[in-house]
Amino acid sequence: MMHGEILIFSLFAPVLAGLAACCLPLSSRAALRASAAAAGLECAVVAAVFVLKGHASRIFACANNLFIDSLSLYHIGLVSLVFFMSAVYSVGYFSDDIDRGAFGPRRARRYTLLWNSFFTILIAVLCSNNMGILWICLEATTLVSALLILSDGRPASIEAMWKYLLLCSVGIAFAFVGTLLLSVAARAASFPPGESLLWTSLADRAGLLDGRIMCAAFVFALVGFGTKAGLAPMHSWLPDAHSQAPTPVSAVFSGVMLNCALYCIMRYLPLCESAMGWRLRAHAMLVLLGLLSIIVAAIFIPSQKNIKRLLAYHSVEHMGIIALGLGIGGLGTLAALYHTFNHTMSKTLAFFSAGRLGRQYKTYDMTRITGAIASNSLWGTAFFVSILALIGVAPFSVFMSEFMLVKASLDAGKFVALAVFFFGSIVVFVSALRHAIDVSMGTKCPDVPPPRRSLPDVALVAVCVGALILFGLFMPRWFYALLGDASSIVEGARILPPLSGGLFR
Amino acid sequence: MSMLIVVLVVSNFFLLGTSRLRALIRIAAFEGLVLGLLPFFTQAEGFSFHTVIIGAGGMLLKGVAIPLLLNRALRGVEAYREEKPRVGYTTSIAAGIAISVLAFWIGAAIPRSPLFPNPQVVSLALCLAAVGLFLIVARTETVSQIVGYLMLENGIYTFGISLSAQQSVLVEMGVLLDLLVGVFIMCIVIYHINRQFESINTEELEVLKE
Amino acid sequence: MATLSLSTALSPTLALACAPLLTGIIAKTKAFFAGRKGPPLLQAYSDILKLLRKGAVYSTTTSWVFRAGPVVSLGALLACCLLMPFGALGAVLSFSGDILLFVYLLAVVRFFTVIAALDTGSPFEGMGASREVFFSALVEPVFLVCLLALSGPAQSFCFQDAIGKGAQISLVPALLAGFALVVVMLAENARLPVDDPATHLELTMIHEVMVLDHGGPDFAFITYGASLKLWLFGLIAVRAFLPLHAASVWIDVLCTSAGMVVIGIVIGTIESVTARLRLLRVPQLLAGAAALALLALLAQQGALP
User: Fold this and answer.
1) What is the ipTM of this complex?
2) Where is the domain boundary, A236, A252, A278?
3) Within its chain, how far is the Cα of A451 from the centroid?
4) Do B107 and C305 touch (CB under 8 A)?
5) Which domain holds residue B21?
6) Which of A267, B144, C12, C105 is least surrounded, with the fewest CB atoms within 10 Å of its CB?
7) If you measure CA to CA, which chain B residue comes closest to A149?
């Protein structure tokens, strides 16, 4: 279908153009702006594809090796949005370095080249229908993003990069075993050779797959992609990498890269569900890892000193919450997907403000960042608000998705999981709120330089906070439809029960 | 085929028993070359376009390109041998014995089915992957850990060979390319670690912890 | 059980007659690598004859134990020769479990060598004795596992079936066991890289230091006994590499003899190109041999292809 090829290739056009632009001899600022423009264009293209796609459930290209459906389009939208915001943010973030001469054109070109390839490969992950290509692209994101951590060459960032590279490569290697087992199961169910790894073919006839092989495949995939998603106990690379990467990169890591790894697990879920029987071990494993992540975050968040590590552990917690939602299934899946968006927006804002405050205070040590609102009203407030959103305070959309999750687990009768979730969230709530109050409200540091304020910064904060509040109070019909489609894909083509009246207007 | 398997298992012990980094790289290269021969003996069709591409690509990459990269990374590095392994060599060999026995015991337990036509190759895959993981855990030099990662990849590659379901050439090549780029980037990290710490031992990396 | 015929009598005769020749081949090979002419092939025979003609000097601090050592050792080794078949030529004595007897006879040899060394009261000899016991404790299980693997198909644990005419082992386990047996041979006979037979430093020696105080006929016994032991171990290793089913007995004997020459050259080569391992690294080498032996056993049991 020619139509589909055009739509899918148009998704790649802006990022490839951005990639090409970085090869031109641009100045540092121009290179950063070019990538921001490319990401902005990508957002527009995603919106256009969303509209043009209409009611078609799947669109294929490249001999069915590439495809998009609601689930992937939803994630592509998130990726583009976060990359766009981070690219805009990085223009301001690096401007001090550019003025000091520490971020010259060569470094800027290398940085934007890696940045845009990271972007491209993430889009490729989300578009690929072939599970082998999916794996290859996800491993490639590890490689490219590892180099992004290294941008400043400090000893700690080298350490973070090494741990990230080794742990994630080894972890993802396990996921490849899962992929191989998937192809074995497909071959055993006598799928034609060309289709044995195509997700759409597998999903359409997932009931034919052998349950035991799929169970093994899912375990390997869960461990592998779970490592990349930062689920405990495979999370140990995450705080290091997030705290040492340049802030725009941390935002992208936390905001979308983890989601993309979870997206891969979401692709495995419906296959395993149908093969292993409805809601069995696969879901129990996800619930277990999710709860473990929440507990790990609850253990480590109270004692954090580094502001970016604090946010990194929040990522572990929220990945756990999303995994928990997926594990509960039904309304939980919807909550998990909704939570993905909310976490992305709030975490991006949190990293943006933490990065700016860290630059201003010349430290990421929270005991030395105090009185942030007084010394930088915009980012100080943004940080406070983002932490409030992250811990699930009421008007923000994170509260809504967590509320949905609670409802789903009550419906499913998972009371133990719910208790653990409540316990973890309360610990995180209290300790993170304490950190946030200390940072934003405490006594103002005397020797902090005045902030630089620019229009893009205000716009970024406004967009993030606006989205968090808007989607918390009122969910647009198209967005709910998108979430519903996406979650019914994860649920294995089961149509969700119609929207119950109480939750949304 | 049995000869190849035995040669690989025996060279695993050399890998576990040596402390010299260059010897480690040489053995890994040798294993890569031998592994490249394996598909010709396990696949039903023998010499086909697919096996030739996979075998030759694997040999070229794991037997030549990656060892060259690693040797290059060692140039200018003041490290010839593993100074402080977390697990001693004799214990490592003992662990290797345990791994091999366990792997072949599991292989013997796999029922012969059209899905797994070669249970011994599955055992070999388990053996290689477990030795790789063991090296990553038990050694502290970055190069040894990279070799461990290579072994893990070799194990998974072997597992792929043991299956009746073939992957498409595109996927196999992509995996190999990822491996090459991965090792290349790890070599870049070695360069940076050496420049920062004047050593390539991971024990130096201890800033970031809880 | 005991079968004395022309062909079985030939096995121990060959061992008694040709054992010192093997040391000669090794010495020649080492001389070749060093670019020297080296001692004549039959030097070991001349040495032994000369020593036999000499008188012995005994320290006043030693007791009968010291004198008994070499005699008992040689006696035990001669008994070993009776158990060992030379290829398709059978052994004089052959029964199920004779491998165990062989191993225990070697233990007797070791025990008397060690106790004689300790009897002198010299600190060097005591040190050598302790090392000998340490290494042999590691080597013995490896040796047993190798022979278990070799004799596996026949289930009789008897030399005749392990390495003699009854051998039915397949190629892969035989090769694995063969390599392990080469290491066992080097370690048991105090060759490089475990022990340096040519060193002049008592501190580093193992076997040579234990026999420092022996002289004259006693030392001749020891030298001859050592060459016999090397012959026996060499024969086991060679047979592991040659699991052939020759058409006639004599072709088999010819191949085995050629194998013995080759193993002499191999030992000489190993000794020329390797250095002695540090004492603490030796267990690692032996662990490697143990790994090979266990793999051989696994392969023989059919776990490996």
Assistant:
1) 0.93
2) A278
3) 29
4) no
5) 2-204
6) C105
7) B189
